[in-house]
Amino acid sequence: xxxxxxxxxxxxxxxxxxxxxxxxxxxxxxxxxxxxxxxxxxxxxxxxxxxxxxxxxxxxxxxxxxxxxxxxxxxxxxxxxxxxxxxxxxxxxxxxxxxxxxxxxxxxxxxxxxxxxxxxxxxxxxxxxxxxxxxxxxx
Length: 139
Ligand SMILES: [Zn+2]
Hints:
Blueprint: H1 3-6, H2 9-19, H3 23-31, H4 69-92, H5 97-129
Helix pairs in contact: 3-5, 4-5
């Protein structure tokens, strides 16, 4: 019998669990635009540019590959909220197209600007927690 054959599933589980990162706290930190590791350091320098590494704990953040994901999520959410609202507003509140266009242009831009960096932080935190791309490194 080889050494590997004698190991049970219980023998292997603690090793796996030690290296897992908790997903929900990381996602909350990412949504708050904070480092998914420590939750203290800022994730972005500016609006969407990600820090090379965390200024507080030193966690490397440049491994992130959010790419177009945050923009797609923002479009999906804002579109699915604004489309029914437009219908409701037109039927029950305002029928003037110029007023409707003004309200919904401002609302859509504001909602998109609010959600985009949060979805990006969320995605980076997800990648960090799941050890995707270069986040597999250290503990
Ligand atoms: Zn940090």
